[in-house]
Amino acid sequence: MKLLVVVSNYPHRGHVYSGAFNERSVLALRRLGHHIDVVAPRPYVPRGLGSLSSRWQTYAKMQRNEVRGQIPIYRPAYWQLPVVGGALWCDRFAYMASVNEIVRRHGKTPYDAILSFNLVGAGGVAWRLARRLAIPVAGWATGNDVRVEPRSSYANAVRRALRAMDLVFYQSGELRDCAAALLHLPPAGLASSRHVVLPRGVEAAPPVRPETRSRLRRELGVSEKGIVVLYLGRIAAAKGVFELAQAMAAARARVPNLICWMVGVKAGFDDATKLAPYLQQNASADNASRLIDACAPEKIWDYFAAADIFVFPSHSEGMPNSLLEAMAAGLPALAYAIPPIEEVDNGGALAKVAPHDVDALAQALVHMANDPQYRATLGRNGRARVHAAFLAGDRMAQAAQRITQIVNDRRRKTQLQRRTALTVGN
């Protein structure tokens, strides 16, 4: 099957971590034998404006066409103004910037179907392209794309996508409920044949050299006696990073050798500049909590190997992929008990505390730090849970099978209509 995958973001030389899970899903589909093209519309940056801000500088570094991992990437530039227009820019304008080139490519080697990751911008581009090319379209609700304000332009864009798509996947059951609410339906009102809860999943952890742990800890000034608490993801208030900083300060009063690494800083794209002064104000002499730049996707496994505890205090998620990766690496995990975390946990796969409860988060960190056997048990259980239910290859295979079925059903229907027309004509 030849798939056109439409995404809102995809790794590029200006931001190697942006859209990393989109890329991993695409590579998983390719390993299954499917032919993939990727469309990732980007905001247009007029010449000379790239130097005005870190965000615009990042956009300016994007290449219109490139090949990553043998996957052709096409990044058409569309006009976008801050605040004004809402979903109009990433929805219709991005479609208009994409359509001519995609029609040309389809004419040379036809696509069988279109798949979008995200239902706002990418979803709007995907279903419009599918309508133009007369091929099936599927979309994946990934998180905040279906948690939009019901009366906003973004909500209208999501509703159009939900109604236009042949098939919609959801990272979690909670996201499916959100989609139903946007359509003013009870959850049971969504047809199970079209609306499927299917997390995209993550890769199994690759082999890591034994010396990786000691090397990275040495580079970051941490001895083997230090107990490293790792957060890896976007440095944003909604991810709970400020609450983590507070919990670490409280936990260190009882376990002085606790160290926290917050990996994921990207200038212009996060709250790191707000968090840094707080960390400095509350830092101890040994710099116990530190912010670390976002790394290339392949390096995350080094951080997992070097850490002792993974903490994920996010307030809301579609599906916590970085948490799943940490669990896949056998790293004991601690998270706020938000709905998708409850879907991940099958009893004993990770430690959980009530959302926003900083005291409970601190107490859980102390417990895990003081009980190596408990950490080892969580690590084993977490790895087993991911391998049993959240591997990307398995999940992408299920998605591709459903899309293929829609493609074949559409072809059979078209052939039947043609035969009927010939019979009537004769």
Write up this protein:
This protein has helices spanning 20-31, 54-60, 87-108, 121-133, 153-164, 173-182, 211-219, 241-252, 272-282, 300-306, 321-328, 339-344, 358-370, 372-389, 392-425, and strands spanning 2-7, 35-39, 42-43, 65-68, 71-74, 77-78, 113-117, 137-141, 167-170, 195-197, 227-232, 258-265, 289-293, 309-312, 333-336, 351-353. The protein has 426 residues and is of the alpha/beta class. It folds into two domains: 2-201 and 392-418, Rossmann fold, CATH 3.40.50; 211-389, Rossmann fold. The strands form three sheets. The protein has an eight-stranded mixed β-sheet with strand order 4-5-2-1-7-8-9-10, with helices on both faces. Strands 13-12-11-14-15-16 form a six-stranded parallel β-sheet, with helices on both faces. A two-stranded parallel sheet has the order 3-6. The two termini are 35 Å apart.
Label this structure with key terms:
426 residues, alpha/beta, Rossmann fold, 2 domains, six-stranded parallel β-sheet, 15 helices, 46% helix, globular
Strand order of the largest sheet: 4-5-2-1-7-8-9-10
Can you tell me the CATH topology of the largest domain? Rossmann fold
Largest sheet: 8 strands, mixed
CATH-assigned homologous superfamily of the largest domain: Glycogen Phosphorylase B
Distance between the termini: 35 Å
The strand count comes to 16
SS element count, helices: 15
Can you give the mean pLDDT? 90
Share in β-strands: 15-25%
C-alpha-based Rg, rounded: 23 Å
CATH architectural arrangement of the largest domain: 3-Layer(aba) Sandwich
The level-1 CATH class of the largest domain: Alpha Beta
How does the overall form come out from the CA principal axes?
globular
Name the structural class: alpha/beta
**Estimated helix fraction:** 40-55%
